[in-house]
Automatic annotation (TrEMBL):
<dbReference type="Pfam" id="PF00041">
    <property type="entry name" value="fn3"/>
</dbReference>
<dbReference type="InterPro" id="IPR050964">
    <property type="entry name" value="Striated_Muscle_Regulatory"/>
</dbReference>
<feature type="domain" description="Fibronectin type-III">
    <location>
        <begin position="55"/>
        <end position="155"/>
    </location>
</feature>
<dbReference type="InterPro" id="IPR003961">
    <property type="entry name" value="FN3_dom"/>
</dbReference>
<dbReference type="InterPro" id="IPR036116">
    <property type="entry name" value="FN3_sf"/>
</dbReference>
<dbReference type="InterPro" id="IPR013783">
    <property type="entry name" value="Ig-like_fold"/>
</dbReference>
<keyword id="KW-0677">Repeat</keyword>
<feature type="domain" description="Fibronectin type-III">
    <location>
        <begin position="159"/>
        <end position="253"/>
    </location>
</feature>
<protein>
    <recommendedName>
        <fullName>Fibronectin type-III domain-containing protein</fullName>
    </recommendedName>
</protein>
<feature type="domain" description="Fibronectin type-III">
    <location>
        <begin position="1"/>
        <end position="53"/>
    </location>
</feature>
Length: 296
């Protein structure tokens, strides 16, 4: 308790100090004068508020994978600075991520030997992030830790899309196109390989091996034949899985143009016809006709 002599009108106040944090207290007041002490006022019950939590200690980021990172820290607990929960903020380094306050997310950590652990997942391979941590109690959030830089590992590429032919292919050829996998910073696609096999055969052979191009002209196909195609990509860490296979029929052949006759030589009982060779022709047919003799 405490008190003192007061004079004059208006409101009065008295501060009771050295109370414990987050503790309920009952307060009351009574008046005194020359006639003695009056009755006590009704009790006012109040709880002292908590102080903001202290910043977590020893934040470390390790066990980095292409899409995740493991955070480890020691909770900075103090009777006057209780901790209700922890929040993490993971932001792209150097990027404009909007309001930084919107990126704080409550994390449910596991305790192992006095150290709290949380795995942050669904990150982008090869990207650079800054990780921060803070504690929260009924007062609100406390100070955040210094940003811990993290660079995620790159991974082999995801598989490309299924190769498909472009319309309008000429006979015995196809122009196949596909979509490249997502490019990872620091692990861009260096090479694509396109393979082909005949329908009914299990033997694949490469028909294209190139850089970042996503199209290929395949020639010397047989007429009216079904082919299977697949493609995969490579970066500095290795090969992707094969794409889904596509099965396509080679374009039908169109009738050839008339041969260009070079010469025709005859003897008393034979005639030799010579003409230029044509690509894509499997056979020729020579027809003999009896010409009508003109003249008198």
């Amino acid at each position: 308790g405490g008190g003192g002599a007061l004079g004059g009108g208006g409101d009065h106040s008295y501060t009771v100090e050295h109370l414990d944090v987050d503790t309920p207290y009952a307060l009351r007041v009574r008046a005194c004068n020359a006639g003695g002490e009056g009755p006590w006022s009704p009790l006012w019950t109040q709880r002292t508020i908590v102080k903001p939590p202290l910043a977590p200690m020893g934040l470390e980021c390790g066990d980095v994978t292409p899409t995740s990172v493991t955070m480890r820290w020691v909770p900075n607990t103090h009777p006057h600075h209780p901790v209700s929960l922890h929040q993490a903020r993971v932001m792209l380094s150097g990027g404009d991520g909007g309001d930084p306050e919107d990126h704080w997310v409550t994390v449910a950590a596991e305790e192992r030997g006095g150290v709290l652990t949380k795995v942050i997942e669904d990150l982008v391979p090869g990207q650079r992030y800054t990780v921060q941590l803070r504690a929260v109690n009924t007062y609100g959030p406390g100070d955040a830790t210094e940003g811990a830089p993290v660079t995620l590992l790159c991974d082999v590429p995801s598989r490309p899309s299924q190769p498909v032919p472009e319309p309008g292919s000429v006979p015995r050829t196809m122009v196949l196109t596909w979509s490249a996998p997502y490019g990872q910073p620091g692990a861009e696609v260096r090479e694509h390989v396109l393979e082909m096999r005949r329908h009914g055969s299990s033997e694949w052979h490469a028909v294209h091996r190139g850089g970042a191009d996503t199209s290929c002209l395949v020639g010397d196909l047989d007429h009216f034949t079904m082919y299977h195609f697949r493609v995969r990509a490579r970066n500095d860490l290795g090969w992707s899985a094969w794409s889904d296979e596509s099965m396509e029929a080679s374009p039908p052949a169109s009738a050839p143009e008339p041969p260009f006759v070079v010469s025709c030589r005859t003897t008393h009982d034979s005639a030799t016809l010579r003409w230029r060779s044509q690509p894509g022709v499997s056979a020729y047919e020579v027809q003999k006709l009896t010409a009508t003799r003109s003249g008198g």
